[in-house]
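=== RUN LOG ===
request id: a7f3
mode: sequence -> structure
chains: 1
length: 207
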Amino acid sequence: MTVTEDPLPVPPARSSPPGDPVEALYREHGRALLGYALRRCATREEALDLVSDVFVVVCRRPDQVPQDEDGQRPWLFGVARLTLANLLRSRARADRLGQRLAADLGREGSQVPDPAALLDARADARRVRQALAGLSDDDRELLTLVAWEGLTPAQAATVLRLAPGTARVRLHRARTRLRTALTRLGTDTDTDTDTDTDTDTAPEETP
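=== RESULT ===
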C-alpha cells in the first residue's frame, strides 16, 4: 500500500484560530507520518492510533516542536519512534503475561472454567444467599463463619461468645433450617461444609 492510496483523514474543523500551528503541522506532515506508521504497525487501526498519539504529544508540548520546517518532520518521526517502542514493550509484556497464564492453565489439575458451570454456580450462590437472608441474624452469622470463613464450630463459638456445645447444637439446627429454605427455593445444594461429622447428630441444647 502506498500513502497516496490511503491518505490521512483530514481533521474536522475546530474552534482554534486560523493558522493554528498544530493543525498546520498535521496537514503538512500527517500523510508522511501515516506512511511511516503503516510500514511499522501491524494494522491500519494501530497506525492511525500511533499518528493520533504523536499529535497528542504535539498539543501537550508545542514549545518542543522545531520552528524550522526542515526539522519538523524528523522530530515527528522521532516522537513516533518512541511512541511505537512503548507500544511494542506493552505488547511484549501482555504476550508474556498471556504465555504465563496459558502455562498455568496447562498444568496438571488446572483447566479453563466451563462457562455453563460458572453460570450454574452463580445461580446456586444466589439461592443460598436468598435462603440465608430468611434466617435469623444469629443463625446466619454462625453458618457463614463456619462455611465461608472456614472456622471450626469451636472457633465460631469463641467469636460469638458461646459455649462450644451450644454452638454445635445451634449450628446443627441452623443447617436444618437452611436446608428447608433451599428446598423451598428448588435447590438441593449441599450446605454441610463442616468437616466435623458429628454436628448432624448433635444433642438437643439444654436450657
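=== NOTES ===
Residues 1-18, 187-207 have pLDDT under 50 and may be disordered.
The two ends are 88 Å apart (CA to CA).
=== END ===
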